[in-house]
Amino acid sequence: RLKKARLHVEKAIKEKKIFAVQGPYPVIRRLLRARGWVERKLPRNGRQLKQHPGDQKKQELKKRASGGGDEQGEAVLNPRGGAQPSLGTTEPLHHPWPRDKESKGQREDEDKKEDKEQCHEDSDDIHDLMSFLAQDQVPNFLWTIRLSNIDQELLPKIEMVNRFPRLYALCTKEGLCQSLQNLSWFEQVDLNTFFPRCYRLGLMDEQKAFIEDFRLTAARSLLKLALQKVEDRPVGTEQSPKVPGILSQPMPSTAGPHSPLYPQLVQEALEVCEQHLGVLGHQDIDRNTPSPCRTCIAWDRFLQEYYRVAHEGTRLVLSTEQQEQCQDVLQRLEEQLPQLGMEGNLNVWILKPSAKSRGRGIVCATRLEEVLELARSCTDPAARVCEWVVQKYVERPLTIFDTKFDIRQWFLVTDWKPLTAWFYRDCYLRFCSQPFSLCHLEPARHLCNVSIQKRYKASQPDPRVPPDKIWSNKQFQAHLARLGRADAWQRVVVPGMKAAILNALRCTRDQVSSRKGSFELFGADFLIGEDFQPWLLEINSCPTMSPSSAVTRRLCANVQRDTLRLVLDRKDNPTCSIGAFELLYREVGWGLGTAPPQAPRAPTAPCVSLQAAVSSCLNVGLKLMVTGCSLKKP
User: Fold this and answer.
1) Where does residue 459 rank: exposed (0-12), middle (13-18), buried (19+ CB within 10 A)?
2) Which of 13, 321, 348, 617 sits most deeply, having the most CB atoms within 10 A of its CB?
3) 493 near 148, Cβ under 8 Å?
4) Which residue, 471, 315, 330, is CA-closest to 407?
5) What local confidence, expressed as pLDDT, does residue 546 receive?
6) Which one-letter DSSP state was computed for residue 341?
7) Which phi-psi region, left, alpha or beta, contains residue 245 (left: φ > 0; alpha: ψ -120 to 50)?
8) Can you give the C-alpha Rg of the chain in angstroms?
9) Where are the domains of the chain?
10) SS3 content of the chain, % helix, strand, coil (to 5)
11) CB 111 within 8 A of CB 124
12) How far is CA 579 from the centre of its chain?
């Protein structure tokens, strides 16, 4: 067995097939071992690996192979030998809430299962022995959870790494918000067609812009509510007890629901919306037109009256003329504002901590003062990043069996310069535990994160909602077919997700450190509107591969398999299968003086399929080179 291990390691070193994995990725380990790779195992939290009874024979073999020395638990990645900082823990950091005892037991069970899934012809002992023999080798391939855990002197020597440095502009909520605000410099695409309005509350200019947006949205919402009152449809939110935790409930106002409203309320809302239409039509360029939010309207009073109508059910009285005016103004606003339909009429906004994941710290608010109260904690100019971002909540999402869901969509970037991205055709849906309702804002109804929903017991009145709260995209397509919209997935949802991902990548590529040999698998979260339009919520680096259901167990294993096919097998065999990956974008002519022009986009972008590989014009931020020759004076 020692001889076999030595021969295997020597062959792997010669063929540059030494790998290291930080984290519980049994699929990656199994697939690389099947390809003849040898793992250079990493210590857990810098401690020695656990010894099990009966390992004495294995330790004797190791001593014979090395002439004595330290145990494997103390070995680290150091080509020169000696002590080096560990590459990091192999604890499953990407598991939700890892400190939970139940999760810890589940991780131990998964580790045991991983051991059973090793190659049949080799025992786990021989893998440990080969890892010990390769302890002084720099890995040729590294799959890690955090790039910051890697020794920066060692990192450049590793040929392939599954992470890119400096992903703040793409994978934090604040960074993505800032990056997409610059979209107009790169593409002639309206940001508001795929990304809900978002503001960084730590910046005073953006906080003022949010206040103006909140007021304008309240005015539009009041017109919608006024028309709904006329049609005798139920409107508003119920006042439920405040639930401690993540989401806030609407706060009651001091005035009672039967107190008379300010008589000019609807007229003021109409005037504000008319002024806003003038600004949208650029009528404020040649004349001194005040901002709609800087008029003589008393906004504090207006908002308090709006809260009574929206959240307490106070009735409005409309004349026939006002009803016609409301319909006309809203129709004209719809032509100018892509988000008018999805924003609803209750003016709900969602606040998110800038750099947290798994739904931690998310708060929903329906009142301006609630948002500003949180903003006061993140206006320190010396702070490196803003603490909160606020984003318009999609009040009219597509629901399945009256339950909210979102989509986790994978994509892979294999190069930033030139930008090369791959789209994964399979994805999965994550359901909430309770039916969707804007009358109640608790997390069980509004946050689809698995780590949030696992805290709640499913109380679904509809037994068709999956008990594990996960669906595959195939199941979703079958559901759309039953609704008579089988074409919506391929004609609207998929092209919309592709366009949103590509726009985000184009905005951020100059802010990401490109490293040849690196690649990264990302997870984008989308919410689907009632019109099947996908809305990009955020982009996650190092998306979880922990199987929370039978669907994710299969899909997560498949995407890891296909990722290795794309980044490893395709180097030696360009025609090999890459599974469910398809080329989303490959930049042509990067860094050159000229580039073929990009084909013009159709006006109905969400319903037009993107080509697998499209050429790109040189954009702002890229290196521009001018060529020519000097002319002699006549």
Assistant:
1) exposed
2) 348
3) no
4) 471
5) 86
6) T
7) left
8) 28
9) 1-43+124-161, 167-195+396-586, 197-229+261-393
10) 40, 15, 50
11) no
12) 23
Q: What are phi and psi of 270, to 5 degrees?
A: -65, -40
For residue 539, the surrounding DSSP H or E stretch is strand 534-541
Give CATH superfamily name and number for 167-195+396-586: ATP-grasp fold, B domain (3.30.470.20)
Q: In 10 A of CB 587, how many CB atoms?
A: 25
CB 123 within 8 A of CB 130: no
* Structure token digits, residue 340: 């008018």
Residue 79, Cβ density class (10 Å: 0-12 exposed, 13-18 middle, ≥19 buried):
exposed
- Decide the pairing of beta strands 198-200 and 388-392: antiparallel
pLDDT in tens, 526-558: 999 999 999 999 999 989 998 889 999 999 999
Per-residue burial over 129-168, b if 16 or more Cβ lie within 10 Å, else e, is bbbbbbbebbbbbbbbbbbeebbeebbeebebbbbbbebb
Instruction: Say how far apart CA 415 and CA 556 lie, in whole Å.
Output: 22
d(CA 563, CA 163): 13
Judge residue 198's burial from the number of C-beta atoms within 10 Å of its C-beta, 0-12 exposed, 13-18 middle, 19 or more buried. buried
- Token look-up 């982009």 returns 539
pLDDT, averaged per 10 consecutive residues of the chain (634 residues), comes to 89 95 90 95 52 42 41 37 37 34 42 41 72 92 87 87 92 92 91 95 91 96 86 44 43 51 84 91 63 74 93 84 93 95 94 68 87 71 64 96 95 95 97 88 82 70 85 97 96 97 94 88 97 96 90 96 97 94 88 41 39 40 61 69
| Burial label, 66 (beta-carbon count in 10 A; 0-12, 13-18, 19+) | middle
| Integer Cα distance of 599 and 158 in angstroms | 39
Query: Beta strand 534-541 with 198-200: parallel, antiparallel or unpaired?
Result: unpaired
